[in-house]
Specification:
The protein has 450 residues and is an all-beta fold. It folds into 4 domains: 206 residues, no CATH class; 67 residues, Sandwich (Immunoglobulin-like); 68 residues, Sandwich (Immunoglobulin-like); 78 residues, Macroglobulin (MG2) domain (Immunoglobulin-like, Sandwich), CATH 2.60.40. Strands 3, 4, 5, 6, 8, 9, 11 and 12 form an 8-stranded antiparallel β-sheet that branches. Strands 1-2-13-7-10 form a 5-stranded antiparallel β-sheet, covered by helices on one side. Strand 30 and strand 31 form a beta hairpin. The two termini are 88 Å apart.
Length: 450
């Protein structure tokens, strides 16, 4: 038997089983409330006392001491655990004869019965014949009379009822059981949720197709400040974009023009008939670079200045086999002449190169009779050592080894020799700028370490 406190506890034992049915995701819940969470009662036309503690769930037309009465049952299942926009596939109710009932005749007489949908609210602790809730004949289920007095009624089709309750959750008032013809000495006696034998309590099995959440990612492509967004989930019906710059869109695949280059966090909330998903991604938009630079000649030194903004990489070619990856390099030419200096700039949107003719004259460079003093670096490429040799009457004073980005990795000073063996075995493989300071000027050579 159940107490009022136990009866008000809204706990339902739910077994969720995932199975594949014709390649569709079908979920199953089994609702078999017990004394703690069942919601059912009996009402009789000869007894105003609420009867929600009975072990019986029944439809009955009988008599007591020669006084006839009519009896009906009310029951409600909580199906709120089914996701809101799911599709009900099938619902089956099983009712089991209460063979331990005090009504010893059990299934008897002309006992064909109705299951009708209740259309107004009721309280199991106060329900009686005079205040019983109204029912509707729409989709009413008729069950044939029993073949024996202990017959069970398994797998009664309640798909229409459950579909209606799921679509209209505030109108889930349950169902009633009553005889088709309430003729004397006719009875259907089933177990209620109060019965001690759990396996015989009312069982409602519902299969439903769960609604899938919207896919959680979008893609984008950009052309400078113009960005094309795309979201491919065809189940969605609403899209709410926030482009991270104060602008928005309700299109599925919008195009947006940013006014400024930069990094933006873009949010999309996608909605389908089931639920919504919010996703985000960080995008970078930029203008394609346009290479431009200026220079200033000062004695033996040329100061180069890049005039292009928002650049990630700089690649300078000084026109004589020397290079730099600095933004604004300073370079000393060792020979008079005309040089074509080129600057290639890169950012995430692309690259561009520009070149200018540079004339170097009378920089005070010491000439040898055969022209500019020479330097050799062998072998090049090298796996370790590089032999540095200078020609004519000059000596090696200092050697500086830098990466192409300008980072120094090795410095040798206070030398005075015509030949020096430079050991690069302790540096990583790559391309290096080797600057040699001699008694007659400076030389820069590109050396590849393998």
């Amino acid at each position: 038997m159940k107490s009022l406190l136990m009866k008000q506890t809204l706990l339902v034992v739910i077994i969720i089983i995932s199975q594949a049915l014709q390649a569709q995701d079908i979920q199953t819940i089994q609702l078999r409330p017990g004394p703690q969470n069942g919601y059912d009662c009996d009402i009789r036309n000869d007894d105003p006392t609420p009867n929600w503690l009975s072990d019986d769930f029944m439809a009955n037309a009988w008599s007591v001491n020669g006084n006839p009465f009519i009896q009906r049952g009310l029951i409600r299942f909580d199906i709120s655990q089914i996701p809101v926009a799911s599709t009900i596939v099938k619902a089956r109710l099983s009712l089991f004869c209460n063979t331990s009932s005090g009504h010893q005749q059990l299934q008897a007489g002309a006992n064909a019965y109705y299951l009708k949908r209740i259309i107004e609210n009721w309280d199991q602790t106060t329900a009686n014949w005079s205040n019983q809730p109204a029912v509707t004949n729409d989709s009413a289920v008729i069950l044939s009379r029993s073949q024996n007095n202990t017959q069970d009624y398994p797998n009664i089709d309640l798909t229409n009822f459950v579909t209606f309750w799921h679509s209209n959750p505030t109108e889930n008032f349950g169902l009633s059981i009553q005889l088709v013809e309430e003729l004397m000495f006719s009875c259907m006696v089933f177990e209620s949720s109060n019965h001690f034998e759990e396996s015989k309590r009312p069982l409602l099995v519902i299969e439903y197709k769960a609604c899938a959440m919207p896919y959680g990612a979008f893609i984008h492509t950009s052309d400078e400040l113009d960005c094309q967004f795309a979201y491919s989930d065809t189940t969605t019906t609403e899209w709410h974009w926030n482009f991270g710059d104060g602008s928005s869109s309700e299109l599925q695949n919008p195009t947006h023009n940013y006014q400024e280059a930069g990094s933006y966090i873009v949010h999309l909330t996608a909605i389908n008939s089931c639920c919504s998903t919010t996703m985000q991604d960080t995008i970078v938009v930029c203008r394609k670079p346009l290479s431009d630079f200026t220079y200033r000649i000062n004695d033996q030194t040329v100061n180069f200045t890049c005039l292009t903004e928002n650049i990630d990489e700089w690649h300078w070619d000084f026109g004589n086999g020397s290079f730099s990856n600095l933004e604004n390099p300073v370079y000393s030419y060792l020979q008079n002449g005309n040089y074509q200096v080129c600057l290639m700039v890169n950012n995430s949107c692309g690259s561009h190169i520009s070149c200018q003719r540079l004339s170097i004259e009378d920089l005070g460079i010491i000439q040898t009779p055969n022209g500019i003093a020479k330097i050799e670096t062998t072998p090049n490429p090298t796996t370790g050592e590089v032999k540095i040799s200078v020609a004519d009457e000059q000596s090696v004073y200092n050697i500086v080894v830098c990466t192409t980005s300008g980072k120094r990795v090795k410095v040798i000073e206070n030398l005075d020799c015509k030949t020096y063996t430079l050991d690069l075995s302790d540096v990583e493989s790559g391309t290096y700028l080797v600057r040699v300071v001699t008694s007659k000027g400076e030389y820069t050579r590109l050396v590849i370490k393998q």
